Amino acid sequence: MNSKIKLAFEKIVGTTNILTQDLNPFNTDWMNKYVGSSEIVLTPQTTDQVSQILRFCNENSLKVVPQSGNTGLVGGSVPIKDEIIISMRKMNQIYEFDLNSAIITSDSGVILENLNNYLFQYKYQMPWDLGARGSCMLGGNISTNAGGLNVVKHGLLRNYVLGLEVVLPNGKILNLLNKNRKDNTGTDLKQLFIGSEGTLGIITKANVLCIPIPNEKKVFFLELKSFQDVIKVLQKVKRNEQLLAFEFMEGKILHKNMHRHSGNKLPFDFQEDKYYVLLEIAGQSLNVDQFSLDMMEFTEEIVMNQNEKEAQFLWKLREEIAESMGKMGYVLKYDVSIPPDKFEWLVNQIYPKREGPFHVYYGHVGDGNVHINIVFESLSELHKEEDKIEQKLFGLVKSQGGSISAEHGIGQHKRKYMELQKGRDVLGCLSEIKRLFDPNGIMNPNKLL
Ligand code: FAD
Ligand code: 2HG
Ligand code: ZN
Fold first, then answer.
1. Distance from the CA of 246 to the center of ligand 3, in angstroms?
2. Range(s) for CATH 3.30.43.10 in the chain?
3. Which residue, of 47, 102, 134, 275, has the greatest Cβ tally within 10 A?
4. Which ipTM value was assigned to this complex?
C-alpha cells in the first residue's frame, strides 16, 4: 500500500482504525470460495469518517468494498482484486427504540442478534431472522435485502426499513432517515439502496419498524413420504395467519448430519428417502390441535416442541445445513425462486435420477425459495462444473418465471446472468443509475452489474 495513501487514511480515521496485517478473514468469504487481495482494511467509527474516506477514494480513483459481517454467500463482501475494505464493525451504536412507533434507530454495524438482545427488554424483535444472526449486521442485511426464516409471515425486509443514512461515493451524506410510519413524499429514494449490495453507497444508519415478540409459539417437525405431500401440507396450512415459518429439508442431509447429535434425542430416525418439514406457528391463543389435525392428513407422526430448548434444537437441525455442507467440501450454492411444486422437478432436471456429486435441496418452501447445494472436493472441480450447471439451472428457472436469486443476491457469483434475469432494457436502466451515483465506478466494482 502506497504510504501517501495510508497517511491520508490515518489522518481521517487514526492509526487504530487501519489494519494492514492478518487480513485473510476480511479477504476471504464465508464459503472459502472467493478470495481477494486487499492490503488495507479501514474501520471508521463515524459517518463523517466514512464520508471523508469515500471522498478521498473518489478523488483518487481508489476502489472500495463495504463489508459488514462478511456472511454473504455470493462473493459480494470481499474484494475481487485489491480494493480497499471498509469494515462497518465499529459503527455499532444503537440510538433508541420508540415504544409508540416501534421503530429502532441504529448504526448499520450492529450485529442482528445484538439488536434482538436490545429489543428484548421492550418485548419487541427485528422483523427478519436468519441463521447468520450472530455475525451478520444491520447494514449487510439491508444491502442484501435479506430474506430468512420468517418471510412467509412477515414479508421482506424492505417493507420494514423506514429510513436510512447513506454516504455516496463522492462523500455526500444523504439523510434519508425517517421515523414516520407513513411518508408519501414522492419517489422513495432509500429503496434504491436496499438490496443494491454496496454498489451505490455505504449505509451508515437505519430506522427499522420492529415487531412484537409473539406471546406463544410452537414448532412442529414432520416426516413425509413424498415431495407432493410437502406441497399438500403447504396448501393446507398456508392460509393460517399464525404460520410463521415453513421450511423443507431432504432426508438425505438430515440423515447425513445425524452423527452431529449423538447425545440428543432426534425427532425422527431420519431416512434418506423421506422428506421433512419444520413448521412454526406463533401468536396468541394458538390452536395447536386444529393445526396438528390439518397436517395429520399427510403425515403419520408429528413431533412438537415441549419447551424453548426443544424448539431451538429442532431449528438447529434446519439452520446447521448450510454450515454442514461447507464442512464436506467446496459448495456451489443456489437460492432460486420457483413455484414450490417445481422444486423436485428442477433438481431432477439438473441431476437426473439424482446422480452426480453429493447435492441436496432444502429451504423456504413457504416462500417459493429453494436452496440447492452441490459439494465438490476441490475448488478447481467446482469451477469446471459451475458454468454448465448454471446455464441449465438458470435457464430452467427463467422458463418457469422464477428468479436466479431469491435472497442471497448477485455479488460476483451471478453477475453474468443479470441480463438473462432482467432483460436488456432493465439492465441498461440499472447501469444508468449506477453511473449517476458512482460515475468513477469505485463502489464494489464488478459486483451485481
Ligand atoms: P456482508 O456479507 O458483509 O455484505 C453483504 C453485501 O452487502 C456485500 O455486497 C457488501 O459489500 C454489502 N454491504 C455490507 N454492509 C454494507 C453497508 N453498510 N452499506 C452498503 N453495502 C454494504 N441470507 C438470506 O437472505 N437468508 C437467509 O436465510 C440466510 N441465511 C444464512 C445462513 C448462514 C449460516 C450464512 C453464513 C449466510 C446466510 N445468508 C442468508 C446470507 C447472509 O447472511 C446475508 O446476505 C446477510 O444479509 C449478509 O449480512 P452481512 O452483515 O454479513 O453482510
Ligand atoms: C439458509 O436458508 C441460508 O439456510 C443458506 O439462506 C442457504 O447455504 C445455503 O445455500
Ligand atoms: Zn435461505
1. 12
2. 3-87
3. 275
4. 0.99
Q: Kindly report, as residue ranges, where domains of CATH 3.30.70.2740 are found in the chain.
A: 322-409
Q: Where in the chain is the domain with CATH 3.30.70.2190?
A: 216-319
Q: Kindly report the protein residue whose alpha carbon is nearest to atom 47 of ligand 1.
A: 141
Probe residue for ligand 1, chosen from 26, 38, 51, 67 as the CB with the greatest number of ligand atoms within 8 Å: 67
203-211: average pLDDT: 98
- Taking residues 248-268, report their average pLDDT: 96
Instruction: Determine the distance separating the centroid of ligand 2 and the alpha carbon of 124, expressed in angstroms.
Output: 25
Where are the CATH 3.30.465.10 domain residues in the chain?
A: 94-212
Q: Is the pLDDT of residue 300 over 80?
A: no
Average per-residue pLDDT for the chain = 97
Residue 293 confidence (pLDDT) above 90: no
Fold for the domain defined by 94-212: 3.30.465
DSSP 179-236: --S---SSS-THHHHTTSTTSS-EEEEEEEE-EEPPSEEEEEEEEES-HHHHHHHHHH
Residue 71 · residue 26 · CB < 8 Å: no
Residue 275, beta-bridge partner list: 224, 250
In the CATH scheme, what is the code of domain 3-87?
3.30.43.10
Probe target for ligand 1 pocket from 143, 193, 415, with the most ligand atoms within 8 Å of CB: 143
Of 301, 292, 281, 280, give the one whose Cα is nearest residue 224.
301
Which ligand has the nearest atom to the CA of 334?
2
- Residue, of 295 and 205, whose pLDDT is higher: 205
Smallest CA separation from ligand 2 atom 5, residue? 322
Where are any strands of DSSP class E within 48-157? 64-67, 84-87, 94-98, 103-107, 124-125
Residue (of 45, 47, 82) closest to 171 by Cα position: 47
Considering the domain 322-409 in this protein, what is its CATH number? 3.30.70.2740
Q: Give the model's confidence band at 432: pLDDT under 50 very low, under 70 low, under 90 confident, else very high.
A: very high
Identify the architecture of domain 216-319 in CATH. Answer: 2-Layer Sandwich (3.30)
Its sign, for the CA torsion 247, 253, 255, 260, is negative
Looking at residue 352, its pLDDT comes to 96
Atom of ligand 1 nearest to the CA of 148: 28
